Fold:
Amino acid sequence: MIGDIDETLEPIFHEVVRRNRGETEFHQALREVMSSLGPALARHPKLLERKVIQRLCEPERQIIFRVPWQDDQGEVHVNRGFRVQFNSVMGPYKGGLRFHPRVYLGVIKFLAFEQIFKNALTGFAIGGGKGGADFNPKGRSDDEIMRFCQSFMTELYRHLGRLTDVPAGDAGVGTREIGWLFGQYKRLTNSYESGVITGKGLGWGGSHVRTEATGYGLVYFVQNMLEARDDDIHGKTCVVSGSGNVAIYTMEKIHALGGKVVACSDSDGVVHDPAGVDVELVKEIKEVRRGRIEEYAEHRTGSEYQADGNIWGIRCDIALPCATENELDTDGAQALIDNGCTLVAEGANMPATLEAINALHQAGVLFAPGKAANAGGVATSALEMQQNAARDMWSFEHTEQRLAAIMDNIHRCCYETAEEYGTPGNYMHGANICSFLRVGQEMVALGLT
Ligand code: NDP
Ligand code: 2IT
Structure:
C-alpha cells in the first residue's frame, strides 16, 4: 500500500520522527519518499551502509530568525523567519520563500525536503532548501509588505550567495516581493549579484517564462502522461484548485492545448464556470487587483460562486490541485473517482494526502507527484541562473522550448524508473527512486559530509 515503509527503513523513519516531534508535514513527506525506496536500496546496499537516508533526513543547516517591522500606524510586529538549507550535494541550496500565517518549521522542512528530490529531477546542479515566514500579507499595504521584505532580508542576506543559497518565490511571494528582497540585498552588499535570487522582473535580471513556468510545466507533464497512453489534453474537462501563480498559468496552458478548465478556487470558496474559466478575468482579479475569487461570478454570467465549496465534487477528466498541502483528502479523491476522473497531477507541493494517493492508485487513476509535475518552476529558475551567469537574456520561445524539453526528461525518468523497479505507471515510485539514486550516489561520491 502507498505509504507503507519497508522493514529496513521503518526504524530509521521512527527515529527521524522522534527527533523532529510535531513536524507532521515533514513526517508525511518523509513517509511518502521512504515508502518508495525499499527496492532501490535492495539494489544499492552501499547507500544503506553509508547511512545516506539518515544523512538525507537531517538538514545541513536550519536558520530561524526574528523579523521585526512596523505597520502603517507605527505599531511594531514581530514575525519568525526561516531558511532550511537541507542538502547541497547537487549544488547551491535552491528553493522558494513562503509568506503565510501557517508557516512553521515543519512546513518549511517538508518543502525543503521535497525540493532536494525535485531539484535532482530537473538535471541541474541545484541542492534543496526552502524558507519563509509566518507573516500574513493579506490585507497589508504595499508599504507594509515592502518593510517586511526589507527586514526579512536584513537577516537572511548573510546566508545567501549565488554559489551558496539562491531563494525564489513560493506562496505569498511573487515578483513584487522578490524585487523588494533583491533591492535590500543589493543595498546591504553593495553588489548587483543577480544570480543570488530568482523570479526577478524582466527589467532587472529575470527570465522569460519564470512567471508561467510552474503551471506550463505541469501541463507539459500531464501532456506527456497522456501521450504515453496515446491520448492528449484536447477536449478534456479539468478542475484546477487555487487561483494564484501556479493555478493561473496551469489554466492558461490547458486552454492553449484545447482542454477546458471549469473550476478554480481560493481559500474562501470555489468558482464553477461550465463554459470554461476566463483566465484573463482571473488574472485581473488576482494579479492586478489582488482581490478574491468571489468577484469572478459577479463579472461572468453563467458562473457560480460557492463559499467553502468543494472543488473535487465537480465532474472532470483531470484534476490539478494547485493551492496548498493536504487540500485533497480521501473524500475529495473518492468524489473524483466517483465522477470518472482519470488523472490527478500535483501543481502544489504535497496537496494530496497519502490516503488520497492510495485511493487514487487503487481506483486506477493516474497520479503525478508534485516533485516531478511542478518542477518546471525551479527548473526555469535554474535557467534564470544560467542567463545571469552569462549576463544574457533568452527569448520567450527559446526558454519555453527548454522548459518543455526538461519536463519531457523528468517524465521519461519517472516513467522508465517505475517500469525498471516493477511498478509500471506509478509516477510516485518512479520520481522518488530516480531522484533518490541521483542524490544518494553523489552523497557517497563526495564522502562523509
Ligand atoms: P500563490 O500565493 O500565488 O497562490 C496560492 C493560491 O492558493 C491562492 O489562490 C490561495 O488563495 C489558494 N489557497 C491557499 N490555501 C487554499 C485552500 N485551503 N483552498 C483553496 N485555495 C487555497 O502561490 P503559488 O501559486 O505560487 O503556490 C501554490 C502551490 O504551488 C504551493 O503549494 C507552492 O508551494 C507550490 N509551488 C509553487 C511554485 C512557484 O513557482 N510559485 C513552484 C512549485 C510549487 P488565497 O488567496 O485565499 O490564500
Ligand atoms: O516549490 C518550488 O519548487 C518553488 N517554489 C520554486 C523554487 C525556485 O527556486 O524557483
The CA atoms of residues 154 and 188 lie 7 Å apart.
